[in-house]
Description:
The chain is of the alpha/beta class and 292 residues long. The protein is built from eight helices and eight strands, in the order H-E-H-E-H-E-E-H-E-H-E-E-H-H-E-H.
Amino acid sequence: MKNLVSMKDLSVEQIRAILEQAQAFREGAKSTLKNHYTMANLFFEPSTRTKMSFEMAERKLDMDVLPFEAGFSSTLKGETLYDTVKVLEAIGIDALVIRHEENNYFESLVGKVKPAIINGGDGTGNHPTQSLLDIYTIWQEFGTLKDKVVSIVGDISHSRVARSNADALTRLGAKVRFVCPPEWQGEFEAVNDFDEVIASSDVIMMLRVQHERHDGATSFSKEGYHEAFGLTIEREKRMKESSIIMHPAPFNRDVEIASELIECDRSRIFKQMENGVFIRMAVIEMILKGRE
Ligand code: NCD
């Protein structure tokens, strides 16, 4: 693996290898990279978790991390993403994490620039390391993904998390279902009644309502949405005893999930964030090893 832009870049064997390496890092394993590397994280869309988690992973791998602030970069003078990446290539960056609002932005880079490209999110397209950390969290919980029923609920059509997970979870043997209002269904096959899937789900993965990707044409009521598609306190009571709650975060409290459930016993939301660091260490190490 030379880059990671989509879950489709990974075979099931490679996904398993990443999970195992993430677990080894969790248990204290150290980097086995032969060279010293320098990375930069280029975030052209807001981020707290993904950006900080990549930076933590890079530092834990003893790498140098050069800061990049999109809001103070030559992008504002009209420099293209390709030209920005060529600058970083020229000054000696080995790998880049990029988040960008344009779907498939990476097509202008992969195979054309020297630094490895790791996708930290492209528009509504892909978010492979989020999918990997979600898979890791489910695997950690149940020891397998085979036949686990994962219900992904919410703003499906605007979600790169849903898109990345749909493909990967299915390939790993999970049974993935989508629940959303009809207007957010996009290309997915989805049901519109959340109550239908609650009791049979092993994982309920809530998605953030992505207001920034809506055109504002339809009116949105927080209370109405919470009632119909939110994980309410009442719905949580009907979940299976062993089932877990996930959310990639940031969450809108009391919109897609009741505030009280965010840190409840079956919530794995902060566990997902913790796991993200180990997953990203494993991904970066695998990519750079593939280039050594
Ligand atoms: C997600 C994203 O940016 O795609 N967040 C994340 O990376 N943890 C989901 C979201 O913003 O709703």
